[in-house]
Design a protein that fits this description.
The protein has 331 residues and is mainly α. It contains 15 helices and 4 strands. Helix 13 runs antiparallel to helix 14, helix 13 packs parallel to helix 15 and helix 14 runs antiparallel to helix 15. The radius of gyration is 22 Å and the shape is globular.
């Protein structure tokens, strides 16, 4: 049986369980009178979830202590950090129980979360998302192991609290995004039919996600205010960030004499021009590579926090080269 069929069968089983017991109420829905709980047809939501990244079981990290807390839905709900604490002989994806029971419901009710890089973050219902979508540790430029940002550390960018910052620079943040009532959820789980938020977790309708603030929006790649990558053109903002990533990568290569970098086993590995490992690199090279990886893996090309993204990349270039990005507007 192929993986997709297996996931669908599991999803249908979960649907039956939830319909039988009643779906947990959302924060903005008034519960029925006298404790009566209507049976709800959530098959459409489960169908959306099946084709989301959350339905994909990543077995390698799920089989590790600590990693299992975010890679197994039941472990997340139960706040279990050790594989041995799971009372079953199989792993599950980020399924209904992850968000609608245990720790997920506690975060939903609290609306705040402590991150490795920031305490007391007010994320509304998006606090659930931030619980796993963060870097897991406070970055340290002096760490000789040269760890990479954890994959999918969107909360670090969204809150402008992550990355390796340049000393003496006052970083800003796009507060219009960070002050959204339900942070991640307001954009990634727009309201669908029946008054329920969609569960693909993708933004398929940019107008539905962003139109309340950006009137008549048709693309995420809105016109940039300035030329931030110094190529002489004022393009779409995501194009400017793509250009900045390229400029910074080229500067890193020049700093290590034509070498390169890549993420391997949770670390940033640096290679010389011949592809041989470099035993050591200066802190400024690591800083630039760390921030490059963070913004690349964030996946939004700056949309999550436009101001912070540009500043993090531009200041990494300045710390590495001693100069501003050539011909660019620095912010």
């Amino acid at each position: 049986m192929n993986r997709r069929k297996w996931v669908i069968l599991v999803a249908l089983a979960l649907t039956s369980m939830l319909v039988a017991s009643g779906c947990p109420p959302r924060n903005d829905v008034t519960p029925p009178p006298n404790g009566v709980r209507e049976e709800l047809d959530i098959s459409a939501l489960v169908g959306q979830w099946v084709y989301s990244a959350h339905s994909n079981i990543l077995l390698l990290p799920a089989q590790r202590d600590n990693c299992v807390a975010c890679h197994d839905g039941g472990a997340f709900a139960g706040e279990l950090n050790e594989v041995a604490a799971i009372e079953r002989d199989f792993f599950v994806s980020i399924d209904c129980r992850a968000c609608h029971s245990g720790q997920g419901m506690e975060l939903l009710a609290a609306g705040t979360i402590d991150l490795p890089t920031a305490e007391g973050v007010g994320g509304g219902s998006g606090a659930q998302c931030m619980a796993c979508h963060n870097s897991r540790r406070t970055p340290d430029i002096n760490n000789p192991e040269r760890p990479a940002p954890h994959y999918s550390s969107q909360a670090d960018v969204f809150t402008a609290s992550g990355g390796l910052r340049a000393e003496g620079f006052d970083y800003g943040s796009t507060t219009a995004h960070s002050e959204l009532t339900n942070s991640c959820v307001d954009c990634h789980m727009t309201m669908g039919e029946g008054g329920f938020r969609q569960h693909t977790f993708r933004i398929d309708d940019v107008q539905a996600a962003c139109g309340q603030c950006h009137q008549n929006i048709t693309t995420f790649n809105l016109p940039a205010g300035k030329d931030y990558d110094g190529d002489g053109e004022q393009k779409g903002f995501q194009d400017e960030v793509t250009g900045l990533l390229r400029v910074l990568e080229e500067a890193i290569g020049a700093a290590i004499d034509g070498g390169s970098f890549a993420v391997e086993a949770g670390r940033i590995r640096f290679m010389d021009a011949a592809g041989e490992p470099l035993a050591e690199v200066p802190n400024e090279v690591y800083q630039a590579a760390f921030n490059h990886v963070l913004i690349t893996q964030d996946g939004s090309l700056g949309v999550h926090n436009p101001i912070y993204t540009v500043q993090l990349l531009q200041q990494a270039y300045r710390a590495l080269t001693g100069n501003d990005v050539p011909n660019a507007t620095m912010i």
